[in-house]
């Protein structure tokens, strides 16, 4: 009865030289139907049987558990025999070995009736389809693992550059991208898009730059892609991408040495804020007059070395970690800094607490942060061929550096832009900085609402052409301007 049913099934569904069961089986190879479990379930229905797919260790991958002779199943899985048949206890069993790139599986099919030609053909061809599906799945999985490992490697290289370890960064990059970091200078670009399309945008950046740029999915901001490139042509490549993608923006840094990658990244983020309001959705960081450029370079370097001298007591490697983390921690939040460096938030806070303690200061004070930021970035310039600190200038203090005619003129001109505002925004800004950039405390000191304080500070941003509500270089320059004109008290440091 059963054999006749199988034969009738094969005859009735045969069309154009291919049985109906074969067409059904091939459907499982379509992209939408590639599921080994569905194939095993289909096999059980097609031959009126129970079916199970087990891995080499005997664990069930698909189908229903079947009682098997484990020794026989092990022989099939190991390849000692390719297939086996067994009859007994009212069951007819077939075992078929299925090889794939990382091992082998055993397909077991159990029927109450003997296997005729039709059932045998279905089992044989189903085993072949399962082998194809397993191979395709493992190939795809291997590709995903490779892409993920490559992305992790790119991020690791960027993190090494962020902490100025250019030697290790070049060593890591040399294996996969020879010559990528051979140049002494590079530009950093930050592309912003909807997070849902970021992976596609990153892939297009890699393709467009022909693997001649370091493309990293930003670990801190979901919609950002970071591109570091020593090639001038990269700017045009990225502009063409922005032109094809709506709601995508790009900000770029000026050329910086590889050791100043963190500085370049900050510049690119700053330019990105401008790009959002540009018709072409692109912007490059505009070099402007920074206060440190108006100071005596030798005296400034000597002062910076003296301020940071307490950290010299740390072992070299530890000191480098503390300095790099503090430099980024003054620019970004602890969470963002942790993601950029690939460490925990607690590690970031511990390193900054250590710097704070050894310098004898309180990072809750914006002027303290501004002065440490100035010292740290002055120290970076030592890596750019600016020369060592000048011992002859050792008597110069921050007060003298800020009281020079060029710095004083710059500070008066910058803060003077706020004077025409009848709301006395300049007083609000000064009080807000003095209160650690805390709107609530500033509001209490001024006798106004905290929201009014925030509105005053926000209205000062376009006038000063600097972002103030987000801590970073812009806020610290404004704080230094207040110190230069004497509107705020200068902080004291253990090193001074």
Automatic annotation (TrEMBL):
GO molecular function, one term: DNA binding
Alphabetical UniProt keywords: DNA-binding
InterPro entries attached to this UniProt entry: CdaR-like_regulators, PucR_C-HTH_dom, PucR_C-HTH_sf
Annotated ranges, domain PucR C-terminal helix-turn-helix: 335-377, 426-481
Gene3D superfamilies assigned to the protein according to its UniProt record, in alphabetical order: PucR C-terminal helix-turn-helix domain
Signal peptide feature range: none
Domain of life: Bacteria
Entry protein name: DNA-binding protein
């Amino acid at each position: 009865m059963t054999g006749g049913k199988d034969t009738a099934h094969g005859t009735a569904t045969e069309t154009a030289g291919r049985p109906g069961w074969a067409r059904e089986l091939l459907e499982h190879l379509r992209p939408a139907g590639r599921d080994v479990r569905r194939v095993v379930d289909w096999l059980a229905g097609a031959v009126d049987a129970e079916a199970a797919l087990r891995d080499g260790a005997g664990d069930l991958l698909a189908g229903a558990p079947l009682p098997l002779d484990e020794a026989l199943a092990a022989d099939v899985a190991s390849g000692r025999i390719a297939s086996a048949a067994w009859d007994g206890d009212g069951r007819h069993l077939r075992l078929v070995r299925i090889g794939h790139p990382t091992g082998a599986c055993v397909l077991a099919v159990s029927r109450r009736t003997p296997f005729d030609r039709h059932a045998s053909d279905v089992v044989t061809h189903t085993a072949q389809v399962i082998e194809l599906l397993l191979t395709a799945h493992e190939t795809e999985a291997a590709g995903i693992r490779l892409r993920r490992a490559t992305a992790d490697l790119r991020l690791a290289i960027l993190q090494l550059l962020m902490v100025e370890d250019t030697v290790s960064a070049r060593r890591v990059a040399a294996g996969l991208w020879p010559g990528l970091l051979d140049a002494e200078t590079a530009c950093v670009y930050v592309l912003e898009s909807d997070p849902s399309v970021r992976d596609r945008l990153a892939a297009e950046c890699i393709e467009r730059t022909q693997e001649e740029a370091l493309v990293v999915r930003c670990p801190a901001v979901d919609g950002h892609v970071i591109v570091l490139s020593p090639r001038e042509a990269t700017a045009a490549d990225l502009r063409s991408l922005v032109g094809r993608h709506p709601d995508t923006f790009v900000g770029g840094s000026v050329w910086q040495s590889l050791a100043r990658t963190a500085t370049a990244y900050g510049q690119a983020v700053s330019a990105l804020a401008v790009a959002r309001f540009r018709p072409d959705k692109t912007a490059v960081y505009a070099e402007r007059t920074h206060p440190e450029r108006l100071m005596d370079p030798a005296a400034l370097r000597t002062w910076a070395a003296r301020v940071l001298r307490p950290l010299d007591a740390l072992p070299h490697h530890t000191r480098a970690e503390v300095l790099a983390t503090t430099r980024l921690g003054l620019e970004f939040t602890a969470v963002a800094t942790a993601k950029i460096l690939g460490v925990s938030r607690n590690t970031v806070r511990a390193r900054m607490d250590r710097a704070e303690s050894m310098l004898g200061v309180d990072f809750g004070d914006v002027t303290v942060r501004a002065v440490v930021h100035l010292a740290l970035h002055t120290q970076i310039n030592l890596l750019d061929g600016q020369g060592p600190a000048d011992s002859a200038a050792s008597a110069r203090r921050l007060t003298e550096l800020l009281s020079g005619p060029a710095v004083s003129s710059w500070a008066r001109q910058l803060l003077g832009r706020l004077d025409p505002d009848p709301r006395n925004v300049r007083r609000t800004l000064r009080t807000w900085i003095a209160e650690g950039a805390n709107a609530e405390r500033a509001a209490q000191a001024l006798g106004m609402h905290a929201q009014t304080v925030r509105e005053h500070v926000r209205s000062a941003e376009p006038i000063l052409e600097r972002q103030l509500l987000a801590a970073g270089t812009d806020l610290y320059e404004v704080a230094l301007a207040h110190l230069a004109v004497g509107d705020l008290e200068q902080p004291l440091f253990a090193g001074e």
